[in-house]
Specification:
A five-stranded mixed sheet has the order 2-9-8-4-6, with no helix packed on it. A four-stranded antiparallel sheet has the order 1-3-7-5, with no helix packed on it. The radius of gyration is 21 Å and the shape is elongated. It has a single domain (26-130), classed as Immunoglobulins (Immunoglobulin-like, Sandwich). Helix content is 16%, strand content 51%. The protein has one helix spanning 2-22; strands spanning 28-30, 34-41, 45-54, 60-67, 72-77, 80-81, 86-94, 100-110, 121-130. By secondary structure, it is of the alpha+beta class.
Length: 131
């Protein structure tokens, strides 16, 4: 009886694993998820471009890129990225009115499959604003 139950569980487990590999899904694979601008003079605007690839098997659709503050603005990004294609997200930081170390987050909302069932992908920037 135990052999039958173990055999049945093995078949069910194998079927679930196989089915998951057949599901089409987009995956965002970034070259880097954080960037440090270093020292920046107060009032200066700086930009950085994050590069990524859709390493999944379905079309990636970005619905929104949201910043944690008005001083950090996502400038350019493609909303639809085919499987195997590369794309970029450019962010601009305005240091006006800032001083010292500043950390900001960009939240990317998309249909990508993320590790640990995260609701979004996150990018980080850091800058040290000097007078």
């Amino acid at each position: 009886m135990k052999k039958i139950i173990l055999f049945t569980l093995g078949i069910v487990f194998s079927t679930v694993v196989f089915a998951q590999t057949l599901v089409k899904s987009p995956v965002m694979s970034f070259e880097e998820k954080s960037f440090d601008f270093g020292d920046v003079k107060q009032g200066q605007k700086v930009t950085h471009t994050f590069k990524y690839k859709n390493t999944g098997t379905d079309t990636l659709k970005i619905s929104n890129v949201v910043s944690s503050c008005g001083c950090t603005v996502p400038k350019d990004y493609e909303k639809v990225v085919a499987p195997g294609a590369t794309a970029t997200i450019t962010v601009q930081f305005d240091s006006t009115g800032k001083m010292g170390v500043v950390n900001k987050t960009l939240t990317i909302l998309s249909n990508a499959v993320l590790p640990n069932n995260e609701p979004a992908e996150y990018l980080q920037i850091r800058v040290n604003v000097i007078p």
